[in-house]
Amino acid sequence: ENVDCISIGGSSGWDWWAYFIPWIVGYGGKPVSDDFKTSTFSSPESLAGIQAYVDLWTQYDVMMPLGADIPGGGQGCFESQNCATFFHIPGFMKTFREQITDFDWDVAVTPSHPIAHATGMGTFGYGITKDSAHPDLAWELIKVLASKEIQGQILRGYGGMPFLKSMADDPIFDELEPPPANVKAFIRGGGVGIFPPMGYPSKCGSLYAGLINQTIRTALEESIRGAKTVEQAFVDADAEIQACLDTAE
Q1: Which of 3, 31, 70 is nearest to 220 (CA)?
Q2: In contact, 220 and 141? CB cutoff 8 Å
Q3: Is-above-0.90 flag for pTM?
Q4: Domains (ranges, CATH) in the chain?
Q5: How far is Cα 151 from Cα 148, in angstroms, rounded to an integer?
Q6: Rounded Cα–Cα distance for residues 37 and 200 (Å)
Q7: Is 81 in contact with 72 (CB distance < 8 Å)?
Q8: Could you report the per-residue pLDDT of 59-76, keeping only the tens digit for each?
């Protein structure tokens, strides 16, 4: 039976920024200039990182094939032992503890790249809209959610890592039953975590949606499927994104 090394691929997810942007950063590149006026996917450093990511399919054949119909996607591929590794967020701990009963599993910090060590990360995302009808009550709720007590409950329930730095060495970690045994890998991973660039003009979209998202998805797919070289695909992608940036206010 064939087993893919990495559960990235299939019908979706392989273009998630948290997978491929760390490769760009890890090779010394970045997707856009600091002022968000110049798209830089086709800089030499960015191309080197993207090429290394694409090579995981085209040269090393360690990823799920694009378009593969795997029940449950990457998560299902790992749970069914058809994929050896699963790259994602701490929130999957609870699900894996409940779903995986026939093999041992653990977590590890993502490997480093030649120039930098980077991994995609996110936040709990607590916030209050300016149109909230009850802003004072909303703030009280956020205070509770951000408290050591509730953050500890989230960790005890294997729902995620506490975001309070003061809890990084909290005794609560010693109370947790494996799996995962190496749960603090998520804390160490936060030390090399990066966020997606979020300053793009709204008309151009972002790495999550709109023109930029679709343009990058197309370029990655063309590269992985061999329709274009990585350089061709991302020179074209940069041109399309740049045309939008140049006309954005």
Answers
A1: 31
A2: no
A3: yes
A4: 4-123+191-247 (3.40.190.10)
A5: 5
A6: 8
A7: no
A8: 999 999 999 888 899 999
